[in-house]
Amino acid sequence: MSDIKKLEEERKTIIATLLRIQKEFMELERKSGVTEKDIHLNPVGIIKEYKEQHEKLANRLVDIAHELKGSIRT
Predict the structure, then answer these.
(1) Which residue would you say has higher pLDDT here, 67 or 40?
(2) Among 2-6, 42-46, 50-54, 61-65, which stretch is predicted with the lowest mean pLDDT?
(3) Which of 68, 72, 54, 69 is closest to 8 using CA atoms?
(4) Angle at which helices 3-32 and 45-69 pack, to 10 degrees?
(5) How many CB atoms lie within 10 A of CB 28?
């Protein structure tokens, strides 16, 4: 498998994971009344885990996009 194919597969996996995380978080919002303030101001527990995982995956997605386009992330 070529490097481009591997990157495209990784990108698809990351997008699917981000969508799953978003869906789970939306359920948490509905059930527990989580707000933007809870997310951005000293998140704890599962909220912190969701935020960290989302940030990590989103950054990797940006890196992949740059690799696929041959550009440099600055």
Answers:
(1) 67
(2) 42-46
(3) 68
(4) 150
(5) 15
> To the nearest 10°, the Cα dihedral for 71, 14, 20, 52?
-70
Tell me if 56 sits within 8 A of 18, measured CB to CB: no
DSSP notation for 20-68: HHHHHHHHHHHHH---HHHHHSS--HHHHHHHHHHHHHHHHHHHHHHHH
- Given a cut of 90, is residue 33 above it in pLDDT? no
**Rounded CA separation 38/33 (Å):** 10
- The pair of structure tokens assigned to 48 is 């912190």
Both structure tokens of 17: 């994971």
d(CA 41, CA 47): 11
Name the amino acid, one letter, at 65. A
